[in-house]
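Example 3.2
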Amino acid sequence: MTTIYVDADACPVKDEVERVATRLDIPVVMVCNGGIRPSRNPLISLRIVAEGPDVADKWIAEHCGPGDVVITADIPLADRCLKAGALVVQNDGQALTSANIGGRLATRDLMQDIRASDPFFQGGGKSFSKADRSRFLQALDSTVKRALRAG
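Structure, written as tokens:
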């Protein structure tokens, strides 16, 4: 059975995930360190994990598998989930696959090195737009349907 796992801390598309899950009747597990109000939707469960670096990521990576969909912006977590057989969609709607995750990991590591070597580096993420939200909805819908067909 397909389950959607959401790396819910700072995830800007929780409402969109709930909307797609409700329409397609798919269970969702929102994983976080706390601070998120539980949904009244019976398909949505909240898994609160202990505080600490990557605790939520570890929980998701240990529980997802083939036929599941993971929503995350965390590239190392996405890599672990792909290796476990899950499908991965980023918050902006970009699908991560075994074909593109290597480049994403390399870019992440490069940017981390640049930030570490230059304390004045002003790089950062762009703001989350309506187009990103729309792209995410389309990507999640098609990814969940693909997972259901495969499962």
